[in-house]
Amino acid sequence: MALLQISEPGQAPDPHQRRIAVGIDLGTTHSLVAAVRHGVPECLPDEDGRAILPSAVRYTEGGGRQIGHAALAAQADDAENTVVSAKRFMGRTLADVAGHQRLPYRFVDQPGMVGVRTRDGVKTAVEVSAEILATLRFRAEDTFDDDLYGAVITVPAYFDDAQRQATKDAAQLAGLNVLRLINEPTAAAIAYGLDQGVEGLYAVYDLGGGTFDISLLRLARGVFEVVATGGDSALGGDDYDQRLASALLQRAGLKALEALSPRERRNVQTAARRGKEALSESTATTVSFEIDGQAHALEVTRAEFEAATAELTATTLRLLKRVLRDAKVSADAVQGVVMVGGSTRMPAVREAMATLFGRPPLTNLNPDEVVALGAAIQANALAGNTASGDLLLLDVTPLSLGLETMGGLVERVIERNSTIPTAKAQDFTTFKDGQTAMAVHVVQGERELVSECRSLARFELRGIPPMVAGAARIRVTFQVDADGLLSVGAKELTSGVEAAIVVKPSYGLTDEQVATMLKEGFATAESDMAARSLREAQVEAQRMVLATESALAADGDLLEAAERAAIDALVARVQATARDAGEPRAIEAAVEALAQGTEGFAAARMNRGIRDALAGRNVNEI
Amino acid sequence: MDDGLRRTSRPPEGANAAAHGAEASLSIRASDFELFGLPEQFAVDLARLDAKWKQLQGAAHPDRFATETAAAQRVAMQWAVRINEAYRRLKNPLARAAYLCSLHGVDLEAESNTAMPPAFLMQQMEWRDALSEAATLDAVDALADEVAASRDATLKSLQAQIDGAAHVDWRAVAGTVRGLMFVDRFMSDIDKRVDALS
Lengths: 622, 198
What we know:
The structure holds 2 protein chains of 2 kinds.
Chain A: E1 21-26, E2 30-37, E3 40-43, E4 53-54, E5 56-59, E6 65-67, H1 69-74, E7 82-84, E8 107-108, E9 115-118, E10 121-124, H2 125-144, E11 150-155, H3 161-173, E12 178-183, H4 184-191, E13 200-207, E14 212-220, E15 223-232, H5 237-251, H6 262-279, E16 284-291, E17 294-301, H7 302-326, E18 334-340, H8 347-357, H9 370-382, E19 392-394, E20 401-405, E21 409-414, E22 422-429, E23 438-444, E24 454-461, E25 474-480, E26 486-492, E27 498-502, H10 511-519, H11 529-555, H12 561-580, H13 584-597, H14 599-614
Helix pairs in contact in A: 2-3, 4-9, 5-6, 5-7, 11-12, 11-13, 12-13
Chain B: E1 6-7, H1 15-19, H2 32-36, H3 46-60, H4 70-91, H5 93-103, H6 118-133, H7 137-163, H8 170-197
Helix pairs in contact in B: 3-4, 4-5, 5-8, 6-8, 7-8
């Protein structure tokens, strides 16, 4: 779903026009949008001057929504219908959501992804996140008074395939053209300009509201390599709030947090969060809340807070050391530590980092904004607004990908921390004489038993010719694209029987589901579906024509006259169809014909690029 | 389950090239060494390998084609995948040696051929006993150091076997590689124990 500026028919677009691309930090507790303006990345504020949009959506009476600050303000009074920290439910089932018993929602344990029952029906994290993303998209469009070319959206480095796919679905639902999903810690390092500076190893410690990520990056002259990642997708500042709240309730001899009504629980947790934040500045504070109509004001010192949460900080340290061990480096090999996420304002966390690494961590950028700023820089580069070669991000898969084999064991196909994009094939054979079908079960994780890994997808390869056991040769190919998304294919080599899937149906949304959700009155979607898809097809056509023309201008000499004429004819057909056809399918067909007709040209251009690269014309050899 | 998967003994070669064979051009099928402009031998200049990898990805990575046509993005994806495949194989000494064997028509038979010299098996048993008896992190670390030293020595002899011989006995090389694969598996068991103890 591309959305970009489209010129009126007959009016030549300026190919050098700057494309508006934004970076979006879709966070657990809050989200931000940033863009590079006048060469500098900055967060875009709302009309009240606030950059932060709380990741909260309240479904109100009459099918309305409140998003952000308004939703948060109403949260204590209407907890059931106000979804916060939805990111924790992205691509998850109920069983995956640690501590869901403590949350004030009516969960619906549906296949694929857990839902929350609100007064406006069951909502998944994808729908909730789409509301937040659309709000940020409108904010950016209002700021520039223009359509967006695309967005880079950040995800925790630890996000698995289902969670990344869900994030992309949410962006699609919000009408955003996703230029790339990138890892949050990587975005933070880009914001600090570490790619421009000293070569070496950097650790990014990202303790947000609901997730903890640790990434080890190796930076060298314009190349950004993620050496190793780790973390916990269910550990963050919210847990510190809960620990503090529980400790205070226990000390005062009050009901346990779990025994409170949803509203009271919210109140206490919000009060605990304020207390936590105050304790980053001072050494003692008062936490005030009401239970059963009775007001309580409890004194708490920083030392007490740190004692109640020491276990959480220790967990982050243990995970951090594990990443260092994975990468086979010691703490003193790390040249700098970048702090990301509001929770890194806690003095105990900063002190722990300084002690482990023997140097104070980098904290001079706002830890809440740093991820969005880095995403904006990357979005600007991907949109082609900078000189090429400025920044190349070489990212890795966070978790191993594999298949179920006999006995419920996992055969790993792609090891974690493999640089993406990547593809790998593994050959398998039949187990029984005359076996004509084979079940392929794709899993993600580091454990050896299938039952302890995450199930991503199942599909069947059918129509294998009957053979004796072990005679068939079935090649299963895994491919992970630059966004970290997986597709799997299986082929029996002696007969050529094939089956393939994009790993999506069992966790993510199918395109049909997205279309249905859009039709069923997604609040911020454009009302006229037909007009919207026609416009999107026209925009995409325009984009492909421009891209083809610039490729021809750069490398047209690679083509014979006849080849050139064939491509020119395809371009002309796309232009004519986009202008005259009243429905999107004809335009899409013409665009696809252009794509197929330029495949050979693209390959020839790439060969030239590779030869140039090997000859050292683009990058100086180190 | 009767329709379950069973791994075959032969790992696929050039799997990626086969998966995208229809669109692949001649140069995407070049050997890993040709692609990286490196001599076809066991010894690899790792700094040069890294520099070449970054150069190639700088030209081919999909991020360079985010505003280009769908055709250009598909080609970029295939190339970036191919470059990463070659890089991964050339960087890892075992994968590199196995790849050299396959270039010379010798299959590793990693799954089916488990015949190892008695002395090698004795050492494996000693190491495994030592690991099960090691109760402290220091003891495991000492064992890890010993195994790593042995592995380094075997890699040196592998280099002599491949780069130093006038006529390379690729079957013997494959045997050495299989032995090193045992050692690597044991080292990952050591890592697990370190995880458990720390």
